[in-house]
Amino acid sequence: MASSALSSSVFTSPCSLSSRVYGDSLLLISRTRCGPNRLCSSRKLYRVRATTLQENEKKVEVEKSFQPKSFPDEEGKGSGEGQSSSKLEGWIIKLEQSVNVLLTDSVIKVLDAFYHDRSYARFFVLETIARVPYFAFMSVLHLYETLGWWRRADYLQVHFAESWNEMHHLLIMEELGGNSWWFDRFLSQHIAVFYYFMTVFMYMISPRMAYHFSECVERHAFETYDKFIKLQGDELKKLPAPEVAVKYYTGGDLYLFDEFQTARPPNSRRPKIENLYDVFLNIRDDEAEHCKTMKACQTHGNLRSPHSFTEDDLDHDPGCGTSTRLLGVIWCLWSSATPHPHHIELNYRKQFQISN
């Protein structure tokens, strides 16, 4: 199977994004516009590499998340106070990532202890856990919208598509018998409940930390599937693909399948499912796409639905009110004292394309 990869450069700023599709590449064009009582950042851009994965490639690379030193010093450059603030934020990011790595390693040790020789059961537990953060993200987003703090249509669309993808991974593992033991169902469901409330709390305090934690989980899932494919590839090619996998990857409307893959334009990935090897190959590649999306989410304003880009985005920019810091509950409480209903409604109408 030939290996090929197509890379696209994504230039992002902490403000609004525009885009065009050139062949198989998606170019995001960032603009900065500030208004009264809005947080503002400089026009300095920084590059994020996004690798477009092809269906037929064997090796998939998943880039590591931003490290604190990779964030540009955008606020107060040349100012002692600004530099101190940037340094403090770097330490906060480092602390958040360290805690996430520790939590992820703890979960991995539990899975290794119980499932070192039971792959399908391990995958069942892993997929039960992996889909939980997207429920948590949507719960908090709906809460914020209900309270009138901010609306993020693209975030809701993409996170639902991610949960839909993970649900089908789970259905595949159930069809393969990964949930046949009562203990596996008990363990995965109880971990999932705890994980949900932990993620809700984390997302309300620091969305950046919650997204990085989810990235760590998805990265482990990618590495687990990649290792399994390398070890069992020959045997998997002899086994038939589950019906649920064939329907999900090749049948009907693939809108939601494209929706969670924010690093690539829609319709650029159409898997072929001929055997069980192809199924696991595509599940592995799905996890790589989740990693990219979670990485993009760690800078507020980076995430856009792949289906939301239009030519009008290049000529119209309603402005933005964000910086590189994500919007946790503390920011929302402060912002609620000085609401900007016109900006919120404008953003809502633009994202859902509602006309008067």
Tell me what you see in this structure.
The chain is mostly helical and 356 residues long. The protein has 11 helices and 4 strands; from the N terminus they run ββββααααααααααα. It has helices spanning 80-115, 119-130, 132-146, 153-175, 182-205, 207-236, 243-250, 255-259, 276-297, 329-336, 341-352, and strands at residues 5-12, 17-22, 25-30, 46-53. Strand 2 (17-22) and strand 3 (25-30) form a beta hairpin. The longest helix has 36 residues, at 80-115. The termini are far apart. Mean pLDDT is 74; it is low at 1-58, 66-78, 311-326 and 340-356.
Topology at a glance:
Layout lengths: L4 E8 L4 E6 L2 E6 L15 E8 L26 H36 L3 H12 L1 H15 L6 H23 L6 H24 L1 H30 L6 H8 L4 H5 L16 H22 L31 H8 L4 H12 L4
Helix pairs in contact: 1-6, 2-4, 2-5, 2-6, 3-4, 3-5, 4-7, 5-6, 6-9
